[in-house]
Design goal:
Distance between the termini: 82 Å
Radius of gyration: 31 Å
Largest sheet: 2 strands, antiparallel
Shape: elongated
Strand content: 5-15%
Length: about 110
């Protein structure tokens, strides 16, 4: 007597076999065995410029994201609240509580 897990696995394997048969039949219709090599070669010749362009575009997007955000990018500045200088916005936004805690009891002109 088979357990429920084995029945489930057998059912999944049968469905996968059916899927592979359908895919094989589809491939034989799209690429007939006697013309398969020529058709695949033609499709690759046609697709190559588009694949190269897509790869170059993805490379440009990746490079722009690395250079323009975070490392090497322009740092956004803001006027420090309660003080008379500018500071990086990300420093203030990461922990505004510590910025204001440092202001309490200190004169703004005595800080630096």
């Amino acid at each position: 007597m088979e357990s429920g897990g084995e029945n489930w696995m057998n059912a999944v394997l049968e469905k996968l076999k059916e899927l592979l048969v359908v895919l094989q039949n589809f491939a034989d219709e799209v690429f007939p065995p006697d013309e398969r090599e020529e058709q695949i070669h033609h499709w690759l010749e046609v697709a190559t410029p588009f694949l190269i362009a897509a790869g170059a575009l993805l490379l440009c997007i990746y490079c722009c994201r690395c250079c323009c955000r975070g490392r090497g990018g322009r740092v956004r500045m803001m006027k420090a609240p309660g003080r008379d200088y500018t500071m990086p916005r990300r420093v203030f936004e990461s922990n505004p509580r510590s910025h204001f805690r440092g202001l309490r009891g200190k004169a703004a002109n005595k800080l630096f």
